[in-house]
């Protein structure tokens, strides 16, 4: 018997059964998926499989918190993220730069993650905040760091029988946060470059976390660099700006594209690192 081209689920358990049986394309807001479909991209070869509509699953919607984490349902829209008092400001800022209000009312954070675009606006903040993704199957679930989930352009480690259900953001007391998107417009434009930079104090030591989009095939973040420049006094960062820029310059691998040149992206990224460090030192 032929498989239906479109499938719907009434609850998460039914969705997981259909995912395990047919490995369908997951469709929630569809804002990224339909663009690829209309563009005729090779990615749309996936449509040889049925499409599973999950946008009505209330179990995967909403934002809550516990003692240690902020927990976001994968079907939560970016408009809901912007309006929630629980969401860190830096993620709100990145969400505000995504397309326009009509798209933000439909587009989901889970879709933005699973699309695995190196220019996705939400990803630098999610990487810098050490976000964890919860993936569920019919009989089990697993948590994976977002940096281990996305492996390349449009590529993730999600399994055929899994659905992303929640995004978990560990609570941290960030002393300073900074987000900047470089594009042709503030919104309704893909990023030429975006940076998320955070500074926090733990055990009487200061550390920064910096991540970029569009400087490689995935989000660019290097924890070894961050560890190297842990300090007891943020003024030491100002004295080390050139060394910090050099360290990041060595790992940046931007490419020329229709939106920007590799040289422009790299120069902007290094200047934004300097801007971030200088502003920390004035706090």
Neighbour order of strands in the largest sheet: 4-5-10-6-7
Helix content: 25-40%
Count, helices: 12
Q: Sheet bearing the most strands, described? A: 5 strands, antiparallel
* Overall pLDDT confidence: 90
Overall outline? globular
Order of helices and strands: EHEHEEEHHHHHEEHEEEEEEHHHH
The stretches of 5 or more residues where confidence is low (pLDDT under 50) are: none
Assign the structural class, choosing from mainly alpha, mainly beta, alpha/beta, alpha+beta, or little secondary structure.
alpha+beta
Write up what this structure looks like.
- A hairpin with a 2-residue loop joins strand 12 and strand 13 (205-213).
- The model has no long low-confidence stretch (mean pLDDT 90).
- Helix 11 runs antiparallel to helix 12.
- Helix content is 33%, strand content 24%.
- It has 283 residues and is α+β, with helices and mostly antiparallel strands.
- Residues 1-174 form the FAD-binding PCMH-type domain.
- It comes from Brachyspira murdochii.
- InterPro entries: CO_DH_flav_C, CO_DH_flav_C_dom_sf, Diverse_Substr_Oxidored, FAD-bd_PCMH, FAD-bd_PCMH-like_sf, FAD-bd_PCMH_sub2, Mopterin_DH_FAD-bd.
Features:
five-stranded antiparallel β-sheet, globular
Brief account:
The chain is α+β, with helices and mostly antiparallel strands and 283 residues long. It has helices at 12-22, 31-39, 78-83, 89-96, 101-104, 109-114, 123-128, 146-149, 223-228, 235-239, 241-249, 262-280; strands at 6-8, 25-27, 51-53, 63-65, 69-73, 132-136, 141-145, 150-152, 155-156, 163-170, 174-182, 193-202, 205-213. α11 packs antiparallel against α12 (262-280).
């Amino acid at each position: 018997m032929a498989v239906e081209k479109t499938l719907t689920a009434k609850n998460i358990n039914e969705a997981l059964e259909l995912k395990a049986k047919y490995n369908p394309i997951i469709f929630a807001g569809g804002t990224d998926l339909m663009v690829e479909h209309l563009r005729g991209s090779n990615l749309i070869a996936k449509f040889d499989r049925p499409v599973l509509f999950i946008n009505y699953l209330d179990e995967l919607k909403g934002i809550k918190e516990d003692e240690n984490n902020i927990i976001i349902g994968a079907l939560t829209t970016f408009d809901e993220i912007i309006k929630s008092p629980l969401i860190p400001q830096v993620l709100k800022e990145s969400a505000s730069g995504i397309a326009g209000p009509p798209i933000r009312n439909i587009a989901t954070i889970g879709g933005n993650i699973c699309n695995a675009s190196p220019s996705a606006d939400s990803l630098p903040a999610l990487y810098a905040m050490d976000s964890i993704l919860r993936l569920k199957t019919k009989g089990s679930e697993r948590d994976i760091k977002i940096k281990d989930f996305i492996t390349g352009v449009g590529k993730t480690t999600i399994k055929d029988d899994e659905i992303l259900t929640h995004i978990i953001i560990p609570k941290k007391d960030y002393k300073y946060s900074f987000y900047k998107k470089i594009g042709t417009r503030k919104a309704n434009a893909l990023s030429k470059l975006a940076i998320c930079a955070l500074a926090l104090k733990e055990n009487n030591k200061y550390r920064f976390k910096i991540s970029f989009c569009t400087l490689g095939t995935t989000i660019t973040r290097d924890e070894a660099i961050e560890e190297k420049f842990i300090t007891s006094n943020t003024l030491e960062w100002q004295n080390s700006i050139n060394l910090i820029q050099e360290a990041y310059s060595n790992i940046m691998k931007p490419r020329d594209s229709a939106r920007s040149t590799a040289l422009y992206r790299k120069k902007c990224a290094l200047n934004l690192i300097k801007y971030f460090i200088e502003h920390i030192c004035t706090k």
